[in-house]
Amino acid sequence: MVRLNRIYTRTGDDGTTGLGDGQRIAKHHPRIAAYGTVDELSAVIGLITAHGVAAPMQGWLVQIQNELFDVGADLCVPGTGGERLRIAAPYTKRLEAILDELNEALAPLQSFVLPGGKPAAAWLHLARTVCRRAERHVTELVAMEGEEVNPEVIRYLNRLSDLFFVMARAANDNGSLDVLWNPGKHPG
């Protein structure tokens, strides 16, 4: 269990932050950008749940917030194994099960979907884009020489962004309120 007696430590006043293994790195390091964006995504989910979504989506989103803290814990400790908390295949499999359940009620798409419709759907589309940014940061970190990242984190984030898209369609009355892209339609 985490226990915080004091929020400020002054150790980051030099522009560095501590990782889970004790190393200190620059606050602008790609690893910090990766798990910082995961934290931002959790905050967006907090906005979605605060504005209210129906069950079971509300419960799924709170569970995803908890899992995103696990993702952050995984990313803040370089490497792919060890005794630290690591994202594993069951995390991703659970997302796939929700995706399959929600997708059954959706009509096939005939066009790309624009973010919009009901407020919850719009927030879910924002979550999808923040999730994709987190995924880009993680893959950038993977591409850096000497940086090790648990590959399941990438799979999880990839599936999660898909889930947010499907959740947005579900929140838009199973797609009936989706705002569809009309290529080339413009005034004039």
Description:
With 188 residues, the protein is mainly α. Helices cover 54% and strands 5% of the residues. It has 5 helices and 4 strands, in the order ββαααβααβ. The strands form 2 sheets. A two-stranded antiparallel ribbon has the order 1-2. It has a two-stranded antiparallel ribbon with strand order 3-4. A hairpin with a 5-residue loop joins strand 1 and strand 2. The longest helix has 25 residues, at 119-143. It is elongated. 30% of the residues are buried.
Q: What oligomeric assembly is this protein in? A: single chain
Main sheet strand line-up: 1-2
Helix content: 40-55%
Q: Mind summarizing the main beta sheet?
A: 2 strands, antiparallel
Global structural class: mainly alpha
Topology, pairings included?
Blueprint: E1 16-18, E2 24-26, H1 30-50, H2 57-75, H3 89-103, E3 113-114, H4 119-143, H5 151-171, E4 179-180
Helix pairs in contact: 1-2, 1-4, 3-5, 4-5
Task: Give a concise summary.
With 188 residues, the protein is mainly α. The protein has helices at 30-50, 57-75, 89-103, 119-143, 151-171, and strands at residues 16-18, 24-26, 113-114, 179-180. The protein has a single domain (24-176), classed as Up-down Bundle (Hypothetical Protein Ta1238, Chain: A).
